[in-house]
Design brief:
GO molecular function, one term: 6-phosphofructokinase activity
Number of strands: 5
Number of domains: 2
Bound molecules: adenosine-5'-triphosphate, 6-O-phosphono-beta-D-fructofuranose
Cofactor: Mg(2+)
InterPro entries: ATP_PFK, PFKA, Phosphofructokinase_dom, PKF_sf
Radius of gyration: 20 Å
Protein name: ATP-dependent 6-phosphofructokinase 3-like
Structural class: alpha/beta
Catalytic activity: beta-D-fructose 6-phosphate + ATP = beta-D-fructose 1,6-bisphosphate + ADP + H(+)
Order of helices and strands: EHEHEHEHEHH
CATH topology of the largest domain: Rossmann fold
Number of helices: 6
Strand content: 5-15%
Distance between the termini: 46 Å
CATH class of the largest domain: Alpha Beta
Helix content: 25-40%
Amino acid sequence: FQVYFESDEVHACIVTCGGLCPGLNTVIRELVCGLYHMYHVKRILGIEGGYRGFYARNTVPLTPKVVNDIHKRGGTILGTSRGGHDTSKIVDSIQDRGINQVYVIGGDGTQRGAAVIFEEIRRRGLKVAVAGIPKTIDNDIPVIDKSFGFDSAVEEAQRAINAAHVEAESVENGIGVVKLMGRYSGKVSILYII
Ligand SMILES: Nc1ncnc2c1ncn2[C@@H]1O[C@H](COP(=O)(O)OP(=O)(O)OP(=O)(O)O)[C@@H](O)[C@H]1O
Ligand SMILES: O=P(O)(O)OC[C@H]1O[C@](O)(CO)[C@@H](O)[C@@H]1O
Protein backbone atom coordinates (compact mmCIF):
# COMPACT_ATOMS: atom_id res chain seq x y z
CA PHE A 1 0.00 0.00 0.00
CA GLN A 2 0.98 3.60 -0.43
CA VAL A 3 1.47 6.08 2.42
CA TYR A 4 -0.11 9.33 1.27
CA PHE A 5 0.90 11.54 4.22
CA GLU A 6 4.12 11.32 6.20
CA SER A 7 3.34 12.05 9.88
CA ASP A 8 5.55 15.10 10.14
CA GLU A 9 3.99 16.78 7.13
CA VAL A 10 0.42 16.45 8.39
CA HIS A 11 -1.36 19.58 9.54
CA ALA A 12 -4.86 18.51 10.57
CA CYS A 13 -7.89 20.54 11.60
CA ILE A 14 -11.20 19.64 13.23
CA VAL A 15 -14.49 21.52 12.95
CA THR A 16 -17.93 20.84 14.42
CA CYS A 17 -21.07 22.17 12.67
CA GLY A 18 -24.85 22.03 13.04
CA GLY A 19 -26.76 21.09 16.21
CA LEU A 20 -25.32 19.61 19.37
CA CYS A 21 -25.18 15.88 19.97
CA PRO A 22 -23.92 14.06 23.07
CA GLY A 23 -20.41 12.69 22.49
CA LEU A 24 -19.03 15.48 20.27
CA ASN A 25 -16.20 16.16 22.70
CA THR A 26 -15.42 12.45 22.93
CA VAL A 27 -15.09 12.29 19.14
CA ILE A 28 -12.80 15.36 19.15
CA ARG A 29 -10.72 13.77 21.91
CA GLU A 30 -10.41 10.44 20.09
CA LEU A 31 -9.41 12.18 16.86
CA VAL A 32 -6.72 14.22 18.60
CA CYS A 33 -5.36 11.32 20.66
CA GLY A 34 -5.54 8.90 17.70
CA LEU A 35 -3.73 11.30 15.36
CA TYR A 36 -1.15 12.16 18.02
CA HIS A 37 -0.39 8.78 19.58
CA MET A 38 -1.11 6.35 16.72
CA TYR A 39 0.03 8.45 13.74
CA HIS A 40 2.47 10.82 15.52
CA VAL A 41 0.74 13.89 14.11
CA LYS A 42 1.71 16.89 16.20
CA ARG A 43 -0.06 19.75 14.42
CA ILE A 44 -3.82 19.64 14.99
CA LEU A 45 -5.93 22.79 14.88
CA GLY A 46 -9.43 23.27 16.29
CA ILE A 47 -11.62 25.58 14.17
CA GLU A 48 -13.97 27.53 16.41
CA GLY A 49 -17.67 28.10 15.72
CA GLY A 50 -18.39 25.84 12.76
CA TYR A 51 -17.67 26.54 9.08
CA ARG A 52 -17.51 30.30 9.48
CA GLY A 53 -14.70 29.77 12.01
CA PHE A 54 -12.34 29.05 9.10
CA TYR A 55 -12.39 32.71 8.13
CA ALA A 56 -14.17 34.69 10.89
CA ARG A 57 -13.20 33.13 14.19
CA ASN A 58 -10.19 31.96 16.14
CA THR A 59 -8.42 28.66 16.00
CA VAL A 60 -7.05 26.67 18.91
CA PRO A 61 -4.13 24.21 18.87
CA LEU A 62 -5.29 20.77 20.05
CA THR A 63 -3.05 18.34 21.90
CA PRO A 64 -3.84 15.28 24.07
CA LYS A 65 -3.28 17.54 27.10
CA VAL A 66 -5.81 20.14 25.88
CA VAL A 67 -8.47 17.46 25.23
CA ASN A 68 -7.69 15.29 28.26
CA ASP A 69 -10.91 16.00 30.22
CA ILE A 70 -13.25 17.24 27.54
CA HIS A 71 -15.26 14.02 27.21
CA LYS A 72 -16.71 14.76 30.65
CA ARG A 73 -18.24 18.01 29.35
CA GLY A 74 -21.34 18.46 27.20
CA GLY A 75 -21.52 20.35 23.91
CA THR A 76 -18.43 20.87 21.78
CA ILE A 77 -15.34 22.66 23.06
CA LEU A 78 -14.92 24.12 19.58
CA GLY A 79 -18.39 25.68 19.44
CA THR A 80 -20.69 25.22 16.46
CA SER A 81 -22.94 27.18 14.12
CA ARG A 82 -25.31 26.95 11.18
CA GLY A 83 -24.89 28.87 7.94
CA GLY A 84 -21.69 30.70 7.06
CA HIS A 85 -20.52 28.19 4.47
CA ASP A 86 -18.46 30.35 2.13
CA THR A 87 -16.60 27.74 0.10
CA SER A 88 -13.86 29.88 -1.39
CA LYS A 89 -13.11 31.65 1.92
CA ILE A 90 -12.95 28.28 3.70
CA VAL A 91 -10.59 26.78 1.13
CA ASP A 92 -8.50 29.99 1.10
CA SER A 93 -8.10 29.57 4.86
CA ILE A 94 -7.19 25.88 4.51
CA GLN A 95 -4.61 26.80 1.88
CA ASP A 96 -3.19 29.81 3.79
CA ARG A 97 -2.77 27.84 7.00
CA GLY A 98 -1.14 24.90 5.21
CA ILE A 99 -3.80 22.48 6.45
CA ASN A 100 -3.80 19.15 4.59
CA GLN A 101 -6.30 17.05 6.58
CA VAL A 102 -9.78 18.38 7.39
CA TYR A 103 -12.00 16.47 9.82
CA VAL A 104 -15.60 17.65 9.67
CA ILE A 105 -18.06 16.51 12.35
CA GLY A 106 -21.69 17.23 11.57
CA GLY A 107 -25.04 16.21 10.13
CA ASP A 108 -26.28 15.90 6.55
CA GLY A 109 -25.94 19.63 5.83
CA THR A 110 -22.39 19.62 7.17
CA GLN A 111 -21.46 16.63 5.01
CA ARG A 112 -22.93 18.37 1.93
CA GLY A 113 -20.74 21.34 2.84
CA ALA A 114 -17.71 19.04 3.19
CA ALA A 115 -18.35 17.63 -0.29
CA VAL A 116 -18.41 21.16 -1.74
CA ILE A 117 -15.14 21.98 0.06
CA PHE A 118 -13.60 18.82 -1.36
CA GLU A 119 -14.71 19.75 -4.90
CA GLU A 120 -13.08 23.17 -4.55
CA ILE A 121 -9.88 21.58 -3.15
CA ARG A 122 -9.80 19.23 -6.15
CA ARG A 123 -10.45 22.11 -8.56
CA ARG A 124 -7.45 23.96 -7.09
CA GLY A 125 -5.31 20.82 -7.25
CA LEU A 126 -4.44 20.88 -3.54
CA LYS A 127 -3.11 17.86 -1.63
CA VAL A 128 -5.74 18.02 1.09
CA ALA A 129 -7.91 15.18 2.47
CA VAL A 130 -11.43 15.86 3.76
CA ALA A 131 -12.98 13.33 6.17
CA GLY A 132 -16.63 13.55 7.23
CA ILE A 133 -17.68 12.17 10.61
CA PRO A 134 -21.47 11.73 10.67
CA LYS A 135 -23.25 13.24 13.66
CA THR A 136 -26.90 12.41 14.25
CA ILE A 137 -28.67 12.09 17.56
CA ASP A 138 -31.49 10.31 15.70
CA ASN A 139 -29.55 7.17 14.72
CA ASP A 140 -30.89 7.55 11.19
CA ILE A 141 -27.90 6.35 9.18
CA PRO A 142 -28.88 2.87 7.89
CA VAL A 143 -25.33 1.65 7.17
CA ILE A 144 -24.11 1.96 10.78
CA ASP A 145 -25.50 0.14 13.80
CA LYS A 146 -25.59 3.12 16.12
CA SER A 147 -24.59 6.76 15.83
CA PHE A 148 -22.87 8.42 18.80
CA GLY A 149 -25.19 10.34 21.12
CA PHE A 150 -28.30 8.27 20.43
CA ASP A 151 -28.10 6.18 23.63
CA SER A 152 -27.61 9.32 25.74
CA ALA A 153 -30.66 10.92 24.12
CA VAL A 154 -32.77 7.85 24.89
CA GLU A 155 -31.52 7.85 28.49
CA GLU A 156 -32.44 11.52 28.92
CA ALA A 157 -35.87 10.86 27.41
CA GLN A 158 -36.33 8.07 29.94
CA ARG A 159 -35.59 10.46 32.81
CA ALA A 160 -38.20 12.97 31.61
CA ILE A 161 -40.83 10.28 30.99
CA ASN A 162 -40.25 8.66 34.40
CA ALA A 163 -40.64 12.01 36.14
CA ALA A 164 -43.87 12.76 34.26
CA HIS A 165 -45.12 9.27 35.08
CA VAL A 166 -44.57 9.81 38.81
CA GLU A 167 -46.41 13.16 38.64
CA ALA A 168 -49.31 11.65 36.67
CA GLU A 169 -49.71 8.68 39.01
CA SER A 170 -49.74 10.83 42.12
CA VAL A 171 -53.01 12.58 41.39
CA GLU A 172 -56.47 11.45 40.34
CA ASN A 173 -56.89 11.42 36.52
CA GLY A 174 -53.34 12.68 36.16
CA ILE A 175 -51.87 12.92 32.69
CA GLY A 176 -48.21 13.43 31.91
CA VAL A 177 -47.21 14.97 28.59
CA VAL A 178 -43.63 14.71 27.40
CA LYS A 179 -42.59 16.10 24.02
CA LEU A 180 -39.58 14.34 22.58
CA MET A 181 -37.40 15.59 19.75
CA GLY A 182 -37.41 14.25 16.23
CA ARG A 183 -40.65 15.02 14.39
CA TYR A 184 -39.27 13.44 11.19
CA SER A 185 -37.06 10.69 12.59
CA GLY A 186 -38.65 9.80 15.90
CA LYS A 187 -36.25 6.97 16.73
CA VAL A 188 -35.57 8.38 20.19
CA SER A 189 -39.29 8.07 20.99
CA ILE A 190 -39.67 4.70 19.26
CA LEU A 191 -36.81 3.09 21.17
CA TYR A 192 -38.21 4.31 24.46
CA ILE A 193 -41.68 2.95 23.67
CA ILE A 194 -40.19 -0.42 22.68
N1 LIG B 1 -25.80 22.18 0.60
C1 LIG B 1 -24.86 22.76 1.35
N2 LIG B 1 -23.75 23.28 0.81
C2 LIG B 1 -22.80 23.86 1.56
N3 LIG B 1 -22.89 23.99 2.91
C3 LIG B 1 -23.98 23.53 3.51
C4 LIG B 1 -25.04 22.88 2.78
N4 LIG B 1 -26.00 22.52 3.65
C5 LIG B 1 -25.56 22.92 4.87
N5 LIG B 1 -24.36 23.51 4.80
C6 LIG B 1 -23.58 24.06 5.90
O1 LIG B 1 -23.36 23.04 6.88
C7 LIG B 1 -23.42 23.57 8.20
C8 LIG B 1 -24.38 22.79 9.06
O2 LIG B 1 -25.59 22.60 8.36
P1 LIG B 1 -26.99 22.39 9.08
O3 LIG B 1 -27.34 23.61 9.86
O4 LIG B 1 -27.93 21.95 8.00
O5 LIG B 1 -26.74 21.23 10.13
P2 LIG B 1 -26.51 19.67 9.96
O6 LIG B 1 -25.10 19.41 9.60
O7 LIG B 1 -27.55 19.08 9.01
O8 LIG B 1 -26.73 19.19 11.43
P3 LIG B 1 -28.12 18.94 12.21
O9 LIG B 1 -28.46 17.51 11.96
O10 LIG B 1 -27.78 19.23 13.60
O11 LIG B 1 -29.13 19.90 11.63
C9 LIG B 1 -23.84 25.03 8.07
O12 LIG B 1 -22.68 25.82 8.29
C10 LIG B 1 -24.34 25.14 6.64
O13 LIG B 1 -24.05 26.41 6.08
O1 LIG C 1 -38.05 17.75 17.44
P1 LIG C 1 -37.80 18.49 16.19
O2 LIG C 1 -38.26 19.90 16.24
O3 LIG C 1 -38.26 17.73 14.97
O4 LIG C 1 -36.21 18.68 16.02
C1 LIG C 1 -35.34 17.59 16.19
C2 LIG C 1 -34.45 17.46 15.05
O5 LIG C 1 -33.50 18.51 15.04
C3 LIG C 1 -32.21 17.97 14.89
O6 LIG C 1 -31.61 17.88 16.16
C4 LIG C 1 -31.34 18.85 14.02
O7 LIG C 1 -31.88 19.02 12.77
C5 LIG C 1 -32.44 16.56 14.34
O8 LIG C 1 -31.33 15.76 14.58
C6 LIG C 1 -33.68 16.18 15.06
O9 LIG C 1 -34.40 15.15 14.44
